[in-house]
Amino acid sequence: MGVRVQALTEYVEDRRDELRCDEAIGREERFEAMVVRQARFMFQVAFGLLRNRQDAEDAVQEAFLKLYRADGWLRMENEKGFLARTVWRVAMDHLPCASERMLDVSELQLAGRAGSPEQNAVDGDERAVLRRLIDGLPEELRQPLVLSSVEEMTSREVAEAMGIPEGTVRTRVMRARAELRRRFLTMQEGQR
């Protein structure tokens, strides 16, 4: 009977080792599938905040590395929200201080007047002007606006990513649009 118990014990231990190995392989495959599925989305979130391709790629890579090292991703309920919040927090660490990013409307007006006719035509492009105006918004308004309007995330996804209430997201987006309208009109009047 002692031989049987020992053989059974060895069998159970071998099975545990196999299961641990299978679990590790399963974990790796699940993580890889998540990376393939969500890398583009996470890049969009990071780029929406950072506005720089290399910085956004770095933030996504760092976020995935942090996720891989921890097991929190195995217990997430809302995958997109969890990943958006993770990459958002990493990207915030890569964000230059607000004083480096702020653009004044008067700078935009001067830039439009100072260049050659070709440069003025390029500066007159509404998309380029809009991009600069968006970049000049305060961070608390710019971030939800970019995520909801440019990256086409729902207000719920933006709220989860930023860690703020959904109603606050809607309010900030509304305020950001009003501020953009005001700045755009001020800029147009200054060019006349």
Q: Describe it for me?
A:
There is one protein chain. The protein is an all-alpha fold. It has 2 domains: 93 residues, RNA polymerase sigma factor, region 2, helix turn helix motif (Rna Polymerase Sigma Factor, Chain: A); 94 residues, Winged helix-like DNA-binding domain superfamily/Winged helix DNA-binding domain (Arc Repressor Mutant, subunit A, Orthogonal Bundle), CATH 1.10.10. It is built from 10 helices and no strands.
Jot down its keywords:
mainly alpha; Arc Repressor Mutant, subunit A
Largest sheet descriptor: none
Please give the CATH class of the largest domain: Mainly Alpha
Say what the CATH topology of the largest domain is: Arc Repressor Mutant, subunit A
CATH superfamily of the largest domain: Winged helix-like DNA-binding domain superfamily/Winged helix DNA-binding domain
Briefly note the structural class of the backbone. Answer: mainly alpha
Q: Spans of 5+ residues with little confidence (pLDDT < 50)?
A: 97-114
Report the radius of gyration as a whole number of Å. 25 Å
Q: Could you tell me the mean pLDDT?
A: 76
N- and C-termini, Cα separation:
100 Å
Oligomerization = single chain
Number of contiguous helices: 10
Global outline: elongated
The percent of residues in helical segments reads: over 70%
Question: How many distinct domains?
Answer: 2
**Known CATH architecture of the largest domain:** Orthogonal Bundle
How much of the polypeptide forms β-strand, as a percent range? Answer: under 5%
Task: Please give the number of β-strands.
Answer: 0
Q: SSE order, as H and E?
A: HHHHHHHHHH
